[in-house]
Structures are given as structure tokens and as C-alpha cells.
Design a protein that fits this description.
four-stranded antiparallel beta sheet; alpha+beta; 16% strand; 50% helix; 2 domains
Length: 402
């Protein structure tokens, strides 16, 4: 099949061809970026939190105790929760993964230097690493003599926290080519030594997956707004454990307010609800855009077949086979789609640059472009197939009609 006759035909009907090519270019640009956004949302939803989610429950409660009573009340609460049937570990912490509220700080590897990266701060009142089910890949957990009271952090006569446990991702960020264990980092002017490294522990709230595991655990007791975590021995009923835990806490303090009691699996579900909704909406956008594009191709091809019936009949009378007529329309469609796809690839990067500037989206990977191109080529061939089949059935007798 020679391309030259097809190009001549397209030049005679260039307005319609350009409109379809523009529609395909727009579809290519939008689909590539939409697929990328969906992919990022799916990566977020399937992120490894680093904790034993299926075995963990969280309780948030509050009383009218003042700061002086906080340590006593916390110890009583932890002792009460440890007696709940099925509970094997308990801990108190000021924030948890999927908790949305996050306490962050900038970290540097030299005193007074600009921060290398930001990290979230987990304050461990004791036993947090074991309760969360974190995996220590190097170093050790905190010793009892390394803990400090939260209120002492703001007193000039008390030495600040001198040790911390960090995630492997944070260690790689601070010291890319060196082992992090035993190294010192700074949040202000005082050095903090890395005494342990855990595989991963995500922030309570994050946008980019790459930033999620930037976490530090400090040995700080009795921070305000403590939340209680319980690790349950499978196959205990997590909902039943929560009810028993609420009862145990109210026995310690009858006027206690339980503001939140939930499993980590439900916390994950709630945390990523917006991502799931967005992924479904964007999937709907892609489907709608593909349907509109396909209808445009079908409509144009059907119009051209109707307008060329006598021309097709003449070609059939001169010996053109049905297969050659079918290939003609398929190749014509392929050329239009290709022009639209090439333009759409440049437009896709333009749209991605705009999204990066205004919505903190990552750079569009190159492999999304051929995925979008192949998808639109297949769509084009399928869309033109029905009109092309009608064209190849045009009888040669039409060549003799006026």
C-alpha cells in the first residue's frame, strides 16, 4: 500500500484530519499524566509502614491531669493495658503512622550547617520499637538510662537527648556512602548519636513515597497528647481487645475521655480514602476520554466511507481487493493517530511540568509515553475497523452509477 495517495487524500480533507489528530494529542497528554498520577496514588496506598499493622490497635484518651501527674497516670495506664487478654506489648507515643498529625524537624550532619533533610520525630516513652514490630537492622534499642522527660527538653540545665534510632532511608540520605551507626546528626546545636537503625517506619502524614520513611525515634517520656499502642497476639479479636482496653483505662480514671480507639488496618483505610477516590475518578476520566476519542475516529471514518463509496467502487472495479481497501483505511487512521501521538508526547511533558510546578507531582517517567502511544494506536485501529469493514464490502457496481 503506497502512502502517497493517502497523504494526498488527507491534504484534501486536512481540517477533519487535524481535528482528530488534535483530539488524539490531547488524549495522549492527559492519559499519560493521569496514568502517572494513578500510579503514584497506588504506590502510596501500598506503602510498607514498617509496623505490624495486623497486630496493632491504638487508643487516644485524655484526662484533666496536669503535667506533674502525667508520668504517674501514664505508668498506671500502661500497666492496666498490659493486663488486657491477648495484649503482648504496650507503648505510649505522641504520634503514629497514618495519624496525619506530624512533628517534624530538619536534620544536618554538621553543627550549624543547613538541614540535609527533614524527618518526623517519634518520642518513645518505652518499648516502642518492640510494640510496633520494627525490625532493627543495625545497632540496639534504647537503654533505660537514655530516656529523658519531655519537660526537661526545654530546661537549660538538663542535657538534651543524646541518642536516637533512625530508619534506613534516613541513614542513606544523611550518609549516602558511609555506615550510619555511631554517627552524629544535629537538630539544633547539640549532637545526637545514632544507636540503632530500623528497616522502615513511615511518617504519620506524607505526600511523596520517597519522603515517607524519613523518621527518627527519640527516647523521650511523657510527652503531651500521648497515644497508647497495643500489640495483640494473633488470632485475638482486635475489636474485642479495644473494648476491654477502654474498660481498663476507665477503671484507672473514671472520668477519662476516649477520643479514638481503632485498629491500624482501619487507620490505613481511612488515611488513603482520598487516594482511592481520586484513583477511581481519574480512571473514569481516562475511560471517558478514550470513549470520546474512539467515537471521534469512528465518526470521521464513517463520514469518509460514506463520501467515498463511488471512489471505492471504482477501485474495486479496477481490481482492488477487499483486503487492500481495509488496509487503506487502517493505514490512513494510523497516520492520523501517529501525528496526534507525537504531538501528544510533547504536550504530555508540558502538562507534567505544569503539574510539577503547581501540585508537587514528580517528573513523568519516559516509559509512560510509549504506553500511551500503543494504547491510542490500538484504540485507533479498533475504532476504524467497523467503518473499514463497511468500506471493503462496497460493491464494484457502484463505479457505474452516476
Amino acid at each position: 500500500m503506497e502512502i502517497q495517495p493517502i497523504l494526498k487524500s488527507l491534504r484534501r480533507q486536512k481540517t477533519a484530519a487535524l481535528l482528530i489528530a488534535f483530539e488524539i494529542a490531547l488524549a495522549c497528554a492527559i492519559i499519560c499524566n493521569t496514568l502517572f498520577v494513578i500510579s503514584e496514588r497506588m504506590d502510596r496506598m501500598h506503602i510498607d509502614s514498617g509496623v505490624a499493622e495486623s497486630e496493632l490497635v491504638r487508643i487516644r484518651s485524655s484526662t484533666l491531669d496536669d503535667a506533674a501527674e502525667r508520668s504517674v497516670r501514664t505508668a498506671e495506664d500502661l500497666a492496666a493495658l498490659q493486663t488486657v487478654a491477648g495484649v503482648v506489648e504496650v507503648a505510649a507515643v505522641q504520634q503514629v503512622p497514618f495519624g496525619n498529625s506530624s512533628w517534624n524537624s530538619g536534620l544536618s550532619v554538621e553543627r550549624g550547617a543547613p538541614p540535609v533533610t527533614g524527618a518526623t520525630n517519634y518520642f518513645d516513652s518505652g518499648n516502642l520499637v518492640s510494640t510496633l514490630g520494627l525490625r532493627l537492622t543495625a545497632g540496639r534499642d534504647f537503654r533505660p538510662d537514655e530516656y529523658i522527660e519531655f519537660d526537661a527538653l526545654f530546661r537549660a540545665d538538663v542535657e538534651v537527648v543524646g541518642s536516637a534510632i533512625i530508619t534506613q532511608a534516613l541513614a542513606d540520605k544523611l550518609w549516602p556512602d558511609e555506615p550510619a551507626l555511631g554517627k552524629f546528626f544535629y537538630t539544633d546545636q547539640d549532637p545526637i548519636r545514632v544507636i540503632g537503625i530500623v528497616d522502615t517506619l513511615i511518617r504519620p502524614s506524607f505526600r511523596a513515597v520517597a519522603d515517607a520513611p524519613m523518621s527518627v525515634i527519640y527516647p523521650v517520656r511523657n510527652t503531651p497528647g500521648l497515644q497508647y499502642l497495643m500489640r495483640v497476639r494473633p488470632p485475638a479479636d482486635l475489636d474485642a481487645v479495644l473494648k476491654q482496653a477502654e474498660t481498663a483505662l476507665r477503671e484507672v480514671h473514671s472520668g477519662r475521655l476516649i477520643s479514638r480507639a481503632e485498629t491500624f488496618e482501619s487507620m490505613r483505610e481511612h488515611f488513603f480514602r482520598g487516594d482511592r477516590v481520586m484513583a477511581m475518578l481519574l480512571s473514569g476520566v481516562i475511560v471517558a476520554l478514550l470513549v470520546v476519542t474512539a467515537l471521534g475516529i469512528v465518526g470521521l471514518a464513517s463520514f469518509w466511507v460514506q463520501g467515498r463509496r463511488r471512489q471505492i467502487g471504482i477501485r474495486r472495479a479496477l481490481g482492488a481487493t477487499r483486503g487492500s481497501i481495509l488496509r487503506y483505511f487502517q493505514l490512513e487512521n494510523f497516520l492520523i493517530v501517529t501525528a496526534g501521538v507525537v504531538t501528544g508526547m510533547f504536550a504530555a511533558y508540558g502538562v507534567n511540568a505544569w503539574l510539577m510546578q503547581h501540585y508537587e507531582l514528580s517528573r513523568l517517567p519516559m516509559y509512560y509515553l510509549p504506553i500511551g502511544a500503543i494504547g491510542l494506536w490500538v484504540l485507533g485501529q479498533l475504532s476504524v475497523l467497523s467503518p473499514a469493514l463497511r468500506a471493503m464490502r462496497v460493491p464494484p457496481a457502484l463505479a457505474t452509477k452516476a
